[in-house]
Design goal:
This protein has 20 helices and 34 strands. With about 850 residues, it is an alpha+beta fold. It folds into five domains: about 110 residues, Histidine kinase-like ATPase, C-terminal domain (Heat Shock Protein 90, 2-Layer Sandwich); about 100 residues, Beta-Lactamase (2-Layer Sandwich); about 140 residues, 2-Layer Sandwich (Beta-Lactamase); about 160 residues, 2-Layer Sandwich (Beta-Lactamase); about 230 residues, Phosphatase 2c, domain 1 (4-Layer Sandwich). It has a six-stranded antiparallel sheet with strand order 7-6-11-10-9-8. A six-stranded antiparallel sheet has the order 14-13-12-17-16-15. A hairpin with a 5-residue loop joins strand 6 and strand 7. Helix 10 runs parallel beside helix 15. The longest helix has about 45 residues. The N and C termini lie far apart (about 130 Å).
Length: about 850
């Protein structure tokens, strides 16, 4: 009896298929037929596709509701095709054909189905019966023999955790403590995201924070236990609210291998649909992916292994994807196996010379104990029988799908054919999703490398380069990272930097790495496995466990805890990438994973690209540091040694070289002893700044000392220095110089003889506050061959100050304004009564305040003051 009817016509365009699916889904959900929605949507999708895509006609979809089921009809206007019969002996054709799949699905899923023809239309109909249940029963399964029941521990523990609206744990039962090792007082109040390894078993693109906000969620992930291990769990989440309206999430968790306790049962095909009309068993693979199919690769792979395991009633299933060169297979999805240990592990495609030693052919192993190592992935898992089939696209191996069982002799060629049929249908979708993932990864990798290059190019500091290298790899590429550096070919690798995503584990990791020999500096490109850290961590954990057996009970856990934590941190895969720059190994980049974890091949390739850029940046920072050290050493050699004490005269010098990293530029000063109790002093300015100017500075300073101590007068000293500068040829630079001889007098004054060769004139500050030039200008050095210079005599009375500066002081600019000689004189007038040091400091402050910009020229200030006699 028909109790409701809904109909809609869809035009012959591609988007009509999606619209038809939505129409059927909305209609059946509105009728409360949620149990058959997925099957109805799959069948409707195929039939409407045949009509609007292949036949090119409009399609009319009619839904008819009855008390015990639903009938759906799809009509098109292309009746000329062959009429399929439901009698025995008629083959439905290959499942790989473009057409005919809708009728095959009807045979597999529907309770009843049929095809009706008229002169203008063709009607394909199918009926889906609602499952029979007792009153109050939501889902139910058949009675089965004891040996077919799922395995579980002697006592099944169900962790009950409640998460508040902020994502923090608010309740933690005893089973949760037993499963994960944390007492309630330790974990309540902390975010669940701190302990969840999400997704432990992929299959959803939803993050844990989003999943906790959903009204209901079910799936797999992992919980980091107190001993550092990741415990795979199967979880069921329900969002609730308290009487005050505050929302929270109740989470039920069991061990992943006990998922049957919580997992929502999968619907099987209706009893009438288990056999086709020709009497042969149908393969329900086309429905086990479900609708809608996962839109991400990990979700598709995980759904595939779970449905494959259920289809063959196995204890475990796995799916591996082939590398580009088809030499290795990488584990991408497992169920019933320790996924934390197996994910991204790699096994060779060919493990032997025979048919059963290659993943390119289907294989059935009735008892793995008779052929140990035949399936490396299952070593040590307790699985006895296994069936594996290849995934191929256009004849190329793209992966391998396998189902395993703990009992021997569980599988035969019949199961291999069923699994191969499944693999053939899923291979193209998997390859398409894999290529899409690779494209996204490559785009992300390119963006990552561009950002990394910018960061590495932005510094020439060695320590900062090391820190950047580690911070870019953790946690993006690895859980922890260590950088070894090699100073030269004769040096041993040195552990220079260690980083872990958990800062509390860095010290333990550094101590562990410090106890083992560093990896060999092999220049061969690419990542290579380094087992030493994991082995050392395992041995340290064993030793700590043995020692703790003799301790008092209250000491247990205090000493062993950190050791076990470190062991879990480095217990996974560890790889070494050489840092090669300019054809020399300058270090190694070590990347590690936590306990029993593995790297993705794409991440290793990205790490290799990063290591090349990091090696060049690290070598550049080394070269820069070496050259900077040499430059600074040479510059310091140009500075005068400690200046002598001049009796009766205060002397102060302030010197600022322009340019980053420069200690000496074109400006220089000096004060030294000469014969007859006199002192020579000089302040000069070489044209330009930087190393070239500093070279002439060194020539001038050393020549002045040498000539003055030979007894030459001031003019003679400068004339000979002028000739030395001109002899430099193209490297010569002109030089302004104020040179003088200072002789303290018995009456407390000081007598000066000065020569001012093109330099800013020295200023004399008298006690009454007046300021005057203390010399006359003369030609600068390094321009003309024949110079006629003369010296002038200046007497500094007690309280007088002589101020000598370079043009970096007087030419200090702020826009169009310049300090100039007059501005300097005004500053000096306010320095009456100050010591030589105070005068120099006040002048420098005035210069710095005059303009906000950093100085572009070297600056030097030399002040001399004759102190006033002390009064009793």
């Amino acid at each position: 009896m028909i109790t409701a009817r809904a109909a809609h016509t869809f035009e012959p365009v591609g988007r009509s298929v999606a619209a038809a699916r939505a129409f059927v889904r909305d209609t059946l959900q509105g009728w409360g037929f949620g149990d058959v929605v997925d099957d109805a949507v799959v069948l409707t999708s195929e039939l409407v596709t045949n009509a609007v895509v292949h036949a090119g006609t409009a399609a009319e979809v009619v839904c008819l509701r009855s008390g015990d089921g639903v009938r759906i009809e799809v009509a098109d206007r292309y009746p000329e095709r062959e009429i399929p019969l439901q009698s025995g002996g008629v083959s439905m054709g290959s499942p790989d054909r473009e057409g005919g799949r809708g009728l095959q699905l009807c045979a597999a899923l529907a309770s009843r189905w049929g095809v009706e023809y008229s002169p203008a239309h063709k009607h394909v109909w199918f009926r889906l019966d609602l499952p029979e249940r007792q009153v109050g029963t939501r889902t139910a399964g058949p009675s089965v023999s004891t040996e077919l029941l799922p395995l579980a521990d002697e006592r099944v523990r169900v962790a009950v955790i409640q998460i508040d609206s902020e994502g923090a744990v608010s309740a933690w039962n005893d089973d949760a403590q037993e499963l994960f090792g944390y007492p309630a007082k330790q974990i309540i109040g902390k975010p669940l995201t701190d302990y969840a390894a999400w997704p432990h078993t992929p299959g959803t693109s939803t993050g844990i924070a989003e999943a906790l906000r959903l009204s209901r969620w079910e799936g797999s992930y992992g919980i980091r236990a107190a001993d550092g291990r990741v415990v795979p769990v199967y979880a069921s989440h329900l969002r609730v609210r308290d009487p005050q309206g505050e929302p929270s999430t109740v989470c039920l968790l069991v061990r992943d291998d006990e998922r049957a306790v919580l997992a929502t049962p999968q619907r099987g095909a209706a009893p009438e649909s288990r056999h086709r009309a020709d009497g042969q068993g149908t393969d329900p693979f086309e429905t086990f992916i479900g609708s809608p199919a996962p839109d991400d690769l990990d979700g598709l792979l995980q759904r595939t292994v779970e449905r494959s395991r259920d289809m063959l009633d196995g204890d475990a299933a796995f799916l591996l994807l082939a590398t580009d060169d088809e030499t290795e297979l990488e584990v991408r999805a497992t169920t019933g196996l320790p996924s934390a240990r197996q994910r991204f592990a790699r096994v060779p495609v060919d493990t032997g010379s025979g048919r059963y030693g290659t993943a390119r052919m289907p294989a059935v192993h009735e008892d793995l104990s008779a052929v140990p190592g035949a399936v490396p992935l299952l070593n040590g898992t307790g699985m006895r029988s296994v069936v594996t089939v290849p995934l191929k696209v256009e004849g190329r191996l793209t992966g391998s799908l396998g189902v395993a069982a703990e009992g021997a002799g569980r599988y035969s060629n019949e199961e291999a054919l069923r699994l191969q049929f499944a693999a053939d249908r899923i291979a193209l979708a998997v390859e398409s999703a894999r290529l899409g993932e690779l494209e996204r990864l490559r785009r992300g990798s390119l963006s990552f490398l561009v950002e990394a290059s910018d960061l590495l190019a932005g510094t020439l500091d060695r320590d900062q380069t090391l820190a950047l290298m580690a911070q870019m790899t953790v946690p993006t590429l690895a859980t922890w990272c260590a950088v070894y550096t090699i100073a030269d070919t004769a040096s041993e690798p040195y552990l220079s930097y260690v980083l872990h995503e958990d800062e509390e584990r860095i010290d333990g990791l550094k101590a562990l790495l410090g106890r083992i020999d560093p990896p060999e500096p092999v220049p061969t490109p690419g990542a290579r496995i380094w087992p030493a850290p994991a082995r050392a961590a395992h041995e340290a954990a064993l030793e700590a466990s043995v020692r703790s057996l003799d301790d008092e009970p209250h000491h247990l856990g205090s000493g062993i805890g950190s050791t076990l934590t470190t062991a879990a941190s480095v217990g996974g895969e560890t790889v070494v990438l050489p840092l090669v720059a300019r054809n020399r190994v300058i270090g190694m980049l070590v990347l590690g994973k936590p306990s029993e974890d593995h790297f993705r091949q794409e991440n290793l390739e990205l790490a290799e690209d990063l290591s090349r850029r990091a090696a060049l940046a690290l070598d550049n920072s080394r070269l820069y540091s070496e050259r900077m050290a040499i430059s600074q050493s040479l510059q310091r050699s140009l500075l005068p040694p400690d200046m002598p004490e001049v009796p009766g005269v205060e002397v102060e010098v302030i010197y600022r070289a322009a340019g980053e990293g420069n200690e000496v530029g074109g400006d220089f000063y000096d004060l030294f002893t000469i014969p007859d109790g006199a002192y020579g002093f000089a302040i000069g300015d070489v044209c330009g700044t930087g190393p070239e100017a500093a070279a002439v500075t060194g020539l001038a300073r050393h020549a002045l000392r040498l000539l003055a101590r030979e007894g030459y007068s001031g003019p003679a000293v400068l004339e000979r220095l002028n000739n030395a500068i001109l002899d430099e040829g193209e490297r010569s630079r002109f030089l302004t110089l104020l040179y003088g001889e200072l002789r303290p007098q018995e009456d407390g004054s000081a007598l000066l003889k000065v020569v001012c060769a093109g330099h800013p004139l020295p200023l004399r500050l008298r006690q009454d506050g007046s300021v005057e030039a203390a010399a006359e200008p003369q030609p600068l050095l390094g321009v003309m061959d024949d110079l006629e210079l003369y010296e002038q005599t200046v007497r500094l009375e007690p309280g007088d100050v002589l101020l000598c500066v370079t043009d970096g002081i007087t030419e200090r600019r702020e826009g169009s304004r310049m300090l100039g000689d007059d501005g300097l004189a005004e500053v000096l007038k306010g320095c009456t009564g100050l010591t030589a040091g105070a005068v120099a400091a006040r002048v420098m402050r005035a210069v710095e305040r005059f303009a906000a910009d950093s100085p572009s020229d070297d600056m030097a200030i030399l002040t001399m003051r004759v102190p006033e006699p002390q009064r009793n």
